[in-house]
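During the no-cost extension, the postdoctoral fellow (Dr. R.K.) reprocessed legacy sequence entries with the updated structure-token encoder. One reprocessed record is reproduced below for audit purposes.
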Amino acid sequence: MSKKEQKYPSPWVSMLPIVALIILLYFTIRLFGSDALSGGSQISLLVSAALCTCMGMVGYGIPWKEFEYAIINNIAGVGSALIVLLIIGALSSVWMLSGVVPTLIYYGVQIIHPQFFLLSTCLICAAVSVMTGSSWTTIATIGIALMGIGKAQGFADGWVAGAIISGAYFGDKVSPLSDTTILASSTSGTPLFTHIRYMMFTTVPSLCVALVVFLVAGWLHGNGSATELASFTTSLEQRFHITPWLLVVPFVTAVLIARKIPSLVTLFLSAGLATVFMLVFQPEVVRQIVGEGLSAGDTWMKGAWKALYGSTSLQTGNAELNELVATRGMEGMLGTVWLILCAMCLGGTMTASGMLASITRMFAHFARRLTGMVASTVGCGLFLNLATADQYISIILTSNMFKGIYQSNRYETRLLSRTTEDAVTVTSVLIPWNTCGMTQATVLNVPTLTYLPYCVFNYVSPLMSILVAALGFRIYRTLQPQPSPTEKEIITQ
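Re-encoded structure tokens follow.
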């Protein structure tokens, strides 16, 4: 059947696999709780993908080869992200066992006042993410240290994770080094720095709202227990060799980032340097995770390898600290990798069946006026994050879907690029089965649904985009109208 003759499923039929997924995930989470990511959620995704495939093959005559190709193409698209994910698992583990994170926690607890901790956390992560261009790198390094400081000061995990993620995704969104920022600007045909400057009208107010919320929340939290903080720092000193020399690792990492070394190379080198520092400064920790009875050389090698790939646990005399310093290495990321692969299967089947195009077409019908057009773009971006489970795919599809609509209404491309980022980049981390939501929940060891209510910046940002459009603030139009695309062109772009 040719593309021209192929009949697309109606939007309501196309929603059935998504509705099935939501129902399956509801029961999975209710039955398995925090263990849902150990297999239950993956099965839910595969069952929904199977339903989508059956509907496409039986109801619309789409051959299996098209589904197979779309699935393979989707998985290939996240191949590099999976490698980065494994390296992040190794990095977060050796940064902990080498004493880098404990040292940052030890000094951070004494420097950052509890009442300003959430505010400081958001600002620190925003600054680091602007420099790195990566929310993932920011959260996997300084984010883990800040989680430890927050635990020591008595903050709930959700609040700390929300402040970390809010700051990290602000930087990821406005940094010229960010791949999502470059992707959003390039797919819409907007110059990069024009795109970044235009985003400031929605992004800065969104961050200000988040900072006010974190300031008030931190102020209401109070000063924390001095006894508890003292116990925390004493336990760190007893378990790890705390020294300023360990700060060389984050310093070198920052230099590599400043020199614009590729993120995968930077993460790999940082993990390698942290492993060396672990062997030099934390020999007792290495012996504890390896055990006795081996020669010095064998102990070092086994300790380094286990720290990078496996799970470890240390006894510190403090229950909360025991949980914090426990690591999972690359092994701990395998469940997330599995989940991402299953999510890509669902995204591929939704694309091949035409259901994704059918649903996005539905959003186009509401794009007759400025506010409706921007709101439709936001809604479509959020839906694509839910359906495809990948922010990169969602950015490309949202931009291509609405490009013709913005042109026909004579709006400059920077409005489209800004709205796409407001809708997609920041909301991807709020979806449990999205690659970003899965990754950050794994790295921070905080379930997505636990931190979701506290990611203030991430859900204010798309609302701010709609508000600014409704007010008509700094909305620019081109001089000449562009040809209006047909409905078919919109679907197949």
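The mean pLDDT is 81. The two ends are 19 Å apart (CA to CA). The remaining legacy entries will be reprocessed before the final report is submitted.
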